[in-house]
């Protein structure tokens, strides 16, 4: 792009989430040496503070790259832009009234390319992999990360190998194929897909972009937290609810708030973060409830919300730490309640949420009952996707078709 402003990332290091050990961000990295844990990018925040102000960021075009000083890319404006980010923050007046809440919002990530928040992670993850010389990527997925990475890999001309459960909804499989990804379906869940990816990547030299084993996807997800803080004029909401599979969005929002607090840009306390899971697959909720430092894989995990079918998130310790650190909590809802929430949100507010996002509706009622959330608080539901890939979960019209009237 001619005349593009010169830019260099403020990225300084990749820090092990377990030990704090620093790792070189200028070369391709996966998990940390020694502990084998997630690596989290860090930035020279003092230099960021000197380089840009919140007002300047607000004046930029409404896309992911407006937060470029807090992203790891050296050439963010040169990245293929499919339009991720800058999603609407919707008020939910009718649902709020039903729940007795005046300050209820929904961040609608369904507005992203490929219909979910996974586009944010892919936009940054694929661009950074490209900067570091990667030309072939493999990813295990519950579905939506696969299609998002497939779209961005298509735009970059990078080869992508997706391994996903055979039970992934057909529209997601079709998306991946349409974007030119090599798709393998496994009779199993995402952890089974992960083992196949690890084995094939090691053999073929592909970059393994498994959840939280790749350091940059979370930076894309972080922009959700940055956008939420900005939308509240840097006085963050009291509570953010997040449908938790591998937990990347939760970690991203936490990281956003931490960096903004360190920059001195926040006018209020960071939100309490609440992890919501499906009862049939709720390792984080189980660990949280029992006070365990580690989560454990449930027997026979199952939920209709494919994105929540993550039997043991790789970053489970970090997720639990974040719940503790932010004063948050965790809650599980069963699939029937989740589907009720989906109907309620669509019929009351005109938002047809993916089942993962819809789980937050039932969870919110539960949290209000438990007293974990107060009715007067400012609450944001992070709806991670739209339901158009999940029409098998949506009621069809009851009335049979009629014949056309004579012309
Ligand atoms: C729509 C949707 N919401 C939430 C999630 C969970 O995301 P994460 O694994 O980052 O916690 C997924 C994951 O596939 C998803 O597709």
Features:
407 residues; alpha/beta; Rossmann fold; six-stranded mixed beta sheet; four-stranded parallel beta sheet; 13 helices; 37% helix; 15% strand; globular; binds pyridoxal-5'-phosphate
What report would you give on this structure?
The chain has about 400 residues and is of the alpha/beta class. It is about 35% helix and about 15% strand. It is built from 13 helices and 13 strands. It has helices at about 45-50, 55-60, 95-100, 120-130, 145-155, 170-180, 190-205, 215-230, 250-265, 285-290, 315-325, 335-350, 355-370, and strands spanning about 10-15, 20-25, 40-45, 90, 105-110, 135-140, 160-165, 180-185, 205-210, 240-245, 270-280, 330-335, 380-385. It has a six-stranded mixed sheet with strand order 4-5-13-10-11-12, with helices on both faces. Helix 4 (about 120-130) packs across helix 5, helix 5 (about 145-155) runs parallel beside helix 6 and helix 8 packs across helix 9. The radius of gyration is 20 Å and the shape is globular. It binds pyridoxal-5'-phosphate (PLP). Pyridoxal-5'-phosphate binds near residues 143, 247, 307 and 356.
Largest sheet: 6 strands, mixed
Q: So what's the overall shape?
A: globular
H-E string: EEEHHEHEHEHEHEHEHEHEHHEHHE
Q: How many distinct beta strands?
A: 13
Bound compounds: pyridoxal-5'-phosphate
Average pLDDT value?
97
- Radius of gyration (CA) equals 20 Å
Number of structurally distinct domains? 3
With helices defined by DSSP (H or I, 4 residues minimum), what is the helix count? 13
The level 1 CATH classification of the largest domain is Alpha Beta
